[in-house]
Amino acid sequence: MSSLPASRLLSSSPTPFLYPCLDSTWTSSASTFRHVARQSRARKRIATSTIRRQSTATAPSEVAHEDAPSIDVNQYDHLNPQPLEYSSNPFTDSCTISLHAGGGGHGCISFLREKYIANGPPNGGDGGTGGNVYIQAVQGETSLHKLARRGILKAARGKNGEGSGKGGKRGEDVLVQVPVGTVVREISRHDPIEAEERKAKGFGGDVDREVDADAAPDQSGKWRRDKWLLYPGGLPKYFTSADFPALPRPRRSNLTASQPQAPLRLDLDTPMKTPMLLAAGAMGGLGNPHFVTKSITRPKYATKGEEGMQIQVQLELKLLADVGLVGLPNAGKSTLLRALTRSRTRIGDWAFTTLSPNIGTVVLDSYAGRPALPSQQHRSHFTIADIPGLIEDAHLDRGLGLGFLRHIERAAVLAFVIDLSAGDAVAALKALWKEVGEYENLRERELNAESERTPVDEDGMVAFKPFESSISPGFDPEPGGSNVLDTQVGRALPPLSLPAISSKPWFVVATKADKEHTQDNFGMLQEYLKRVQAGEEEHPSGKPNAWRKRPVAVPVSAVMKEGVEGIPGLVWPTQPFILAELSKLQSRKLRRRSGRNWIFLSFVPEHCQVCRRPGAR
Ligand SMILES: Nc1nc2c(ncn2[C@@H]2O[C@H](COP(=O)(O)OP(=O)(O)OP(=O)(O)O)[C@@H](O)[C@H]2O)c(=O)[nH]1
Ligand SMILES: [Mg+2]
Fold it and tell me: At which of 317, 340, 371 does a domain end?
């Protein structure tokens, strides 16, 4: 055995792994490892792109992008990304984060010392206040993924006080910027001062009794190591026998008065000009001059800064859109969005092409370089949200679940997108409404649980003030009734509740009407909707107070952009008025441009199988 060369001995034992530097082959093997790793990474990349190519094989438009030998890079931008980059946009619409207000800096123990003044009076400064935590809803943010990744956001601690009476610096604040439409709910909070006050009263005591600010200070604070800061040069015997004063009452920053009341429930559905305070930083400790008494003229102690408050909140992004598209996967929702707006959302002939919501804007404009209407009181655009497809039993977490329905909760109108070529349209509509109804039940249960937790008023009534729909301005049925966030904080915020989804107006967009044998399916759908309107059929959601005023179905061929011209008219009930106004104003000019303007297009579908049927429409 001893005749074996050392390198072979090492290679036949686990030594190279434990002591690679002892192995003569180490350098070469390390480089081999690196080479192998590089190769495997390259193989992985090739495999991924092959898989993507395979999966796009059925979508001719996508394949064209993939196989094109020269890609014009300038034709892509962040709104119209390259096919391979579609999945690179991270999107998170719900997360839980911890917000920590900054703790206070410690007070300072210091004495004046100058020429001829060897033992001067105390001059330690107070500790600085901790940083505050603010929140602000801003335009431009579209996802919560950055916050979800961070998890904890901490404001900085205040700096300690210094000698010569210098106070410590304030801690740096933290600003949490969230997308407009974010709902903030408090999960738990730890307020050290409140905990202290409760402890002082005794756990069995009357916790509702107000703390009397003039009451005698807490004597239990004596000798508390977590509260007092001692002079480092002092002898231990001095401190054990020192006559410590009573511990000062825990102090709160003046800013605490402008914090919203606990528990936090905010609906940030408008962009905020100024940030809103969520948690004020804790106060700094007191320097030693605060403890000068007649008997103790040179106190060798100061107090430590207070601990900062910690709040755990849940953030939920509910996108703001006027119209929500709901449909089974592959029904053609994204194609419809592309047909109506300039959105470049991805489409593909397979289920779950869309994995995160997309918003598109329909411009109600004459494209003549100025607004369609001179008056400002009418809208010039509305937004549409395309969400991932729902499948049967999505409420049992099948497919992508029901979570994405939160993005249509604020929508004023729902559009159910039904594929006429994919079997019974009525059954598909009922299946979709069933899932929407289940989501509504889930929300109701959540709301009930929340209102049970809502503080009870003095007269024993639960404070409950549901606010109006917070859809974007212009769709508000009662002007001025929208939930505009009042940045004047410090007031009780109403519990969050949005109108029931089933109470919203809805219509059906029957897509793929250009395909053969879709007429009868559409006819049955229309008949069904008429029966629902007349009350002969139960509302597909099964809810008693559901909207059934005028549910209509529009046959469209989204892929050929036919029939979609009528959709804005369904969304915007005042359109006839606008049409009249517009025709009075600019009729001749616009009629010439009618190829680009849906308002004046009289829809003559060429390919629509439903409309080409003799006697139809
Ligand atoms: N013939 C025809 N095909 C359509 C029409 N609308 C959509 N399609 C096709 O249907 C397929 C699915 O379209 P998508 O818009 O991706 O469907 P989706 O509902 O967004 O699907 P998910 O994102 O998976 O939920 C695509 O291949 C479209 O080209 C239509 O009106 N007529
Ligand atoms: Mg889609």
Answer: 317
Provide the CATH number for the domain around residue 392: 3.40.50.300
Residues 118 and 248 in one domain: yes
Can you tell me the distance from the alpha carbon of 340 to that of 566, in angstroms, rounded to the nearest whole number? 10
Are 548 and 583 contained in the same domain?
Answer: yes
Give the three-state DSSP class for 260: coil
Q: Which pair of tokens denotes residue 360?
A: 């598109």
Q: How far is the CA of 353 from the centre of ligand 1 (A)?
A: 9
> Is the full-model pTM beyond 0.80?
no
Is residue 346 within 6 Å of ligand 1 at its C-beta?
A: no
Residue 480 lies in a domain: no
pLDDT of 370 reads 55
Residue 531 lies in a domain: yes
Same domain, 340 and 309: no
CA 139 to ligand 1 centroid distance, Å = 30
Least confident residue range of 204-213, 214-223, 359-368: 204-213
* DSSP state letter for 404: G
Are 601 and 565 in contact, with CB atoms under 8 Å apart?
Answer: yes
Q: For residues 541 and 371, which has the higher predicted lDDT (pLDDT)?
A: 541
- Which among 335, 356, 610 is the best mutation to test ligand 1's pocket, defined by most ligand atoms within 8 Å of the CB? 335
Give the closest residue (by CA) to ligand 1 atom 21.
330
Same domain membership, residue 418 and residue 283: no
Whether residues 248 and 366 fall in one domain: no
447 Cβ below 6 A of ligand 1: no
Give yes or no for residue 352 CB within 6 A of ligand 1. yes
Residue 233 in this model has a pLDDT that exceeds 60 = yes
173 within some domain = yes
Q: How far is CA 141 from CA 147, 172, 317, 408, in A?
A: 11, 23, 11, 18
Closest residue to atom 32 of ligand 1, CA basis = 512
540 Cα–ligand 2 center, Å: 23
Residue 403, Cβ neighbours under 10 Å: how many? 15
| Cα(52) to centroid(ligand 2), Å | 17
Strand pairing class (506-511; 413-419): parallel
The residue among 251, 284, 317 that closes a domain is: 317
Q: Ligand 2: distance of its center to the CA of 520 in Å?
A: 26
Task: Tell me the mean pLDDT in the region 378-401.
Answer: 77
Looking at the 3D structure of the chain, how many domains does it have? 2
> Measured in angstroms, how far is the CA atom of residue 400 from the centroid of ligand 1?
18
Nearest CA to ligand 1 atom 30: 512
Whether residues 115 and 233 share a domain: the answer is yes
In short, whether 327's Cβ falls inside 6 Å of ligand 1 is yes
Q: Residues 549-577: what's their mean pLDDT?
A: 77
- Host domain of residue 264: 94-201+220-317
- Residue 131 pLDDT greater than 90, yes or no: yes
| Dihedral sign for Cα atoms in the order 483, 485, 486, 488 | positive
- With helix as H, strand as E and coil as C, how does 221-256 read? HCCCCCCEEECCCCCHHHHHHCCCCCCCCCCCCHHH
- Say whether both 327 and 295 belong to one domain: no
CATH number, residue 153: 2.70.210.12
**pLDDT class of 24 with cuts at 50, 70, 90:** very low
Q: Is 329 in the pocket of ligand 1 (CB under 6 A)?
A: yes
The confidence score (pLDDT) of residue 200 equals: 72
383 CA to middle of ligand 2, Å?
16
Each residue's pLDDT tens digit, 506-543: 889 999 888 888 888 888 998 999 998 888 888 888 88
Does the interface ipTM go beyond 0.95?
yes
Whether residue 335 has its Cβ less than 6 Å from ligand 1: yes
- Residue 337 sits in the same domain as residue 268: no
